[in-house]
Amino acid sequence: MAGTKNYFDQILENQNKLYSSFLNYANTVVETAMPDKNAAEDAGKLLNEYYTRYAELTEKMVDKTNLEKYQKDFWGAFTADYTKSVELSMDLYKKTVDYFKNVWPTNALETQQERAKRLAELYQETMKTVYDTSTANAKVVQEYMN
Question: Residue 1: its pLDDT value, please?
Fold first, then answer.
């Protein structure tokens, strides 16, 4: 009969294989979902522009002189501010559409199918590792109990 340490070492080895499988799965998912560096930088610039331009517009709208315009001609001031807001939204929407047109190449469908297939295969491999590890650990425990 082998010592308790031997059983523990076997379980530890099985768990290390399982951990490696999960780590590989997680890394592959991240790599698959991650946009390329240029796309990520462009997304950051676009988000920064969203924040900056909306913040600037809001600051102008709550400026004391602008609020005084509301006191004199509420509907005129409201319409002007609302128009500026809609124009900004339309401009940023157009930039967002242009961004996605550049990010998604013409072969996006094939790329997505390839990625989905790879992730499905990897998921199956990982689940098989979970099953194999559980089975191997159960055998170790069974041997230990006998």
Answer: 47
* Residues 76-93 pLDDT 10s: 999 999 999 999 999 999
Alpha-carbon span 20 to 96, nearest angstrom: 38
Whole-structure pTM value = 0.54
DSSP, residue by residue, 87-140: HHHHHHHHHHHHHHHHHS-TTHHHHHHHHHHHHHHHHHHHHHHHHHHHHHHHHH
CA–CA distance, 36 with 10 (Å, rounded to integer):
41
Cβ–Cβ under 8 Å, residues 35 and 99:
no
What spatial distance separates the first Cα and last Cα of the chain, rounded to whole Å?
Answer: 9
Q: Which residues touch 104 (CB under 8 Å, ≥6 apart)?
A: none
Tokens for 101?
Answer: 């047109």
Residue type, 56: E
Residue 52 has pLDDT above 90, yes or no: yes
More confident residue, 109 or 57: 57
- Neighbour tally for 121: CB within 10 Å: 11
Q: From CA 21, how far away is CA 122, in angstroms rounded?
A: 9
